[in-house]
Amino acid sequence: VQLVESGGDSVQAGTGLRLSCLLSRSTLNRYHMAWFRQAPGEPREGVASIRRDGRTFYADSVIGRFTISKDYAKNTVYLQMDSLKSEDTAMYYCAASRQPPLFGIGTHGAYDYWGQGTQVTVSS
Length: 124
Description:
- The chain has no helices and eleven strands.
- It has strands at about 1-5, 10, 15-25, 30-40, 45-50, 55-60, 65-70, 75-80, 90-95, 115, 120-124.
- The strands form two sheets. Strands 2, 4, 5, 6, 9, 10 and 11 form a seven-stranded mixed beta sheet that branches. Strands 1-3-8-7 form a four-stranded antiparallel beta sheet, with no helix packed on it.
- A hairpin with a 5-residue loop joins strand 5 (about 45-50) and strand 6 (about 55-60).
- The radius of gyration is 13 Å and the shape is globular.
- About 30% of the residues are buried.
């Protein structure tokens, strides 16, 4: 399984971005998917996840601003980010798990495959 993220950019606070994660060498319907982020000096944190059955989970800090979705035809998972804040600045990673996390988004240890990341920088 290979995951390739795209869509990161440097933007102004209050604007939006859409990140994409293309899954190759397998099919999306086999995995539970998630977006994590990591700022310098900070631990990697779960942002949003979407289960195989379509259920979604979000970190409290992004509820109402971020939306995770998936397109089976394109084998792609998206993270629509609106009303961006400076504290959203981080490297964003896509992750895939063969088994459902025990709760919510789950920890990074629950995921089997990772992309290389795409940088999001939000300036105020």
